[in-house]
Amino acid sequence: MQITLDNPASAPQPLSPYYSQVARIEHADGSALLFVSGQIAEGGTLAEQTRGVFEALAALLKAHGATLADVVSIRTYLTDISKLEEYGTVRREFLTGTPPTSMTFEASRLFRPEALVEVEAVAAVPAR
Questions:
Q1: How many CB atoms lie within 10 A of CB 42?
Q2: Using alpha carbons only, what angle is made at residue 20 by residues 6 and 59, rounded to the nearest 5 degrees?
Q3: The pLDDT value given to residue 18
Q4: Measured distance CA(15)–CA(25) in Å, rounded
Q5: Distance of alpha carbon 13 from alpha carbon 5, whole angstroms
Q6: What are phi and psi of 122, to 5 degrees?
Q7: Contact 74, 120 (CB under 8 A)
Q8: What is the DSSP letter of 81?
Q9: How many Å apart are CA 122 and CA 9, to the nearest integer?
Q10: Are the C-beta atoms of 72 and 109 separated by less than 8 Å?
Q11: What is the distance, to the nearest Å, from the Cα of residue 102 to the centroid of all Cα atoms in its chain?
Q12: Mapping DSSP to helix (H, G, I), strand (E, B) and coil, where does residue 49 land?
């Protein structure tokens, strides 16, 4: 097993130098698990921020040979749980297959005061 911590140049860069965007756990057969740090995005509405978050997740996964279809688990933090349906509508635009395991939490505030949503994901990448 090999562990790589990464901030892919082809994806949005972290907002702080104190964490890595992706942890890749590669197995001997070439398969891997990707742990993607929580992502936030700019936008005036929850829908705009959610769209940006999933675009960032897609870019980070792509840098490691994966797609959103490889996501097996997702964790979401919303600052207003009553807007879960608005978040879910956008999420379904990006996660179109069998839905991954999921947890959603309400948080009083996130890393940046203007952030309304933060999402972290785990993806399973099959052997090449």
A1: 10
A2: 60
A3: 87
A4: 23
A5: 13
A6: -125, 130
A7: yes
A8: G
A9: 20
A10: no
A11: 12
A12: helix
Over residues 46-57, the pLDDT tens digits come to 999 999 999 999
Q: What are the angstrom distances between the C-alpha of 123 and each of 23, 51, 86, 97, 108? A: 10, 19, 24, 14, 27
Predicted local confidence at residue 6, as pLDDT: 87
Query: CA 117, CA 108: separation in Å to the nearest integer?
Result: 11
The answer to whether the CB of 59 falls within 8 A of the CB of 11 is yes
Q: Contacts for 109-112 with beta carbons within 8 Å, 24 or more apart?
A: 109/79, 110/40, 110/77, 110/79, 111/15, 111/38, 111/40, 112/15, 112/40
For residue 78, the 8-state DSSP code is: E
Rounded CA separation 4/121 (Å): 16
Structure letter (DSSP) for residue 92: H
Whether 36 contacts 88, CB under 8 Å: no
DSSP-assigned letter for residue 24: E
Highest mean pLDDT among 2-6, 13-17, 18-22, 99-103: 99-103
Given a cut of 80, whether residue 127 has pLDDT beyond it is yes
Residue type, 76: T
d(CA 56, CA 100): 18
